[in-house]
């Protein structure tokens, strides 16, 4: 595993542990996240900086869901792009309904810290978990 892949791997470990401080420690000061439009909690869009992303994306999601991303496949391009696919697994806190949503994450690492993320996920699965169960 390359040094860059190791940094990205640390992100998944921190996210699974719900460790916001560890996430902040591995994000570059110029970090940018592009998250899937349609994510609940206003978490879809473009976010700049570690603090904004932690608060408006991961913090918002973790407030509504007990969830984490679990990586399944890893590929690193010759240009340094790290592509990870996997699944988010967890439950919506308000409904107790489980969710599982596939993802693809594209990562860049600069100076030993994560500088860019582009996330694709099945936002319908996230929304379904927040909806009350139908009788």
- How widely separated are the two ends? 48 Å
Unreliable stretches covering 5 or more consecutive residues: none
N-to-C SSE string, H for helix and E for strand:
HHEEHEEEEH
DSSP summary: helix tally: 4
Name the overall outline.
globular
| Largest β sheet strand count, sense and barrel closure | 6 strands, mixed
- Strand content is 35-45%
Helix content: 25-40%
Mean pLDDT: 95
Instruction: Give a count of the beta strands, DSSP E runs of length 2 or more.
Output: 6
Report on the architecture of this protein.
β4 and β5 (98-110) form a beta hairpin. The protein has four helices and six strands; from the N terminus they run ααββαββββα. It is α+β, with helices and mostly antiparallel strands and 135 residues long. Strands 2-1-6-5-4-3 form a six-stranded mixed sheet. Helix content is 33%, strand content 43%. The mean pLDDT is 95. The chain is globular, with a radius of gyration of 14 Å. The chain starts with a helix and ends in a 5-residue tail after the last helix. The longest helix has 15 residues, at 3-17. The chain has helices at 3-17, 20-26, 50-64, 123-130; strands at 27-35, 45-48, 65-76, 82-92, 98-110, 113-121.
């Amino acid at each position: 595993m390359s040094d860059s892949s190791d940094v990205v791997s640390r992100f998944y470990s921190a996210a699974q542990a719900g460790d916001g401080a560890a996430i902040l420690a591995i994000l570059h000061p110029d970090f940018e996240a592009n998250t899937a439009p349609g994510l609940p909690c206003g978490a879809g869009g473009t976010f700049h900086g570690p603090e904004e992303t932690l608060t408006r994306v991961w913090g918002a999601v973790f407030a509504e869901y007990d969830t984490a991303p679990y990586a399944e496949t890893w590929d690193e391009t010759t240009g340094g792009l790290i592509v990870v696919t996997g699944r988010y697994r967890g439950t919506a806190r308000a409904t107790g309904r489980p969710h599982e949503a596939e993802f693809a994450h594209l990562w860049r690492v600069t100076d030993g810290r994560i500088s860019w993320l582009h996330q694709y996920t099945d936002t319908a699965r996230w929304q379904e978990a927040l909806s009350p169960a139908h009788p």
